[in-house]
């Protein structure tokens, strides 16, 4: 191991039990020996140099390329040691702080998400094969944070609870119109239409998601009430009683928050209600992970609440409720990671080994960020007028309970149905992202 990397790790790893084997076979131990052991093998001099100068990007890249193996503890263990040592005199005193500071300073340049760029960014992630997502998502293909009302819930149960939790905050009534910005695989829109007898328009920039969601609406006989479009929300002109957006705001970019809420204000009727569900930071604004921005979510950004609220205020909208969901996404990602691992061979048949290693790192590092960093979920309820919603939150709990009873009844009486036929799997190579 080179001397500079050893010094960096000596300063970084104050707690934990980390063993690192270098390209020449020598093994060095870092930390105080506490906790579960983690053992990394840096296999090439190239990876060793890269990790020395930019560990937050070079570790995942080296892992993807097979130049780094994790012999014990897994990716989650590596990230646990890294995150738990941040701010304790370790990484804050290293070269990495300067690199991450520069990324934060230039974050706005990385998030000029025009309509055309937004479409390209979405295609990089959400237009991956739907067959891949079926390997690790729940039955309804909810690709966002679940809501674990009880810690022993299954993933499917927690995703159903998430839909009820969101629906209750929308205060829906039969016959209303609902806009779903970033409608994903269609599950939430279909649920709202069935549970409340409302008309739903979903918009997405993902061709793959649009195709699957449209097929699902037809399969469930809801095509007259739920309509999905390949369209940017900025192109819409209709007005809606309700707007919901789940897991899309992370792709808006800090430069475009004012545009997002100004447009939402014009799309919302005078007595309208909006529910925004997004990943956020409980701490101060900071840069997107270099690995996530380069390989997973180009153009993405996780906001602090202090960055979101001013844009809402300037749009003329009224914030009526804010809830912070802590650790729910960590548990969701844990389920996804376990399911992906169980189906790894199938994922490799669709893509390749490098993709599987990239996806493993993405899921585990994301779980770690929700467990040991400052990532949380914001659920922000918004209205056009101050008196649109009841003065207490009791209506939310009552609605959730009623929906839970309804869902239980449907599960007990519904005939067994086969899932819609999956589209033919296709093997793709994922090119290096610039």
TrEMBL record:
Residues 15-88 form the DUF7884 domain. It comes from the Bacteria. CDD domains: AdoMet_MTases. Residues 424-434 have a biased composition (Basic residues). GO terms for biological process: methylation. Its EC number is 2.1.1.-. The keyword Transferase applies. The keyword Transferase applies. Keywords: Lipid metabolism, Methyltransferase, S-adenosyl-L-methionine, Transferase. Residues 408-434 are annotated as: Disordered. One of its GO terms (molecular function) is methyltransferase activity. It holds the Pfam family CMAS. Belongs to the CFA/CMAS family. PANTHER family: CYCLOPROPANE-FATTY-ACYL-PHOSPHOLIPID SYNTHASE. This is Class I SAM-dependent methyltransferase. It comes from Mesorhizobium cantuariense. The lineage of its organism: Bacteria, Pseudomonadati, Pseudomonadota, Alphaproteobacteria, Hyphomicrobiales.
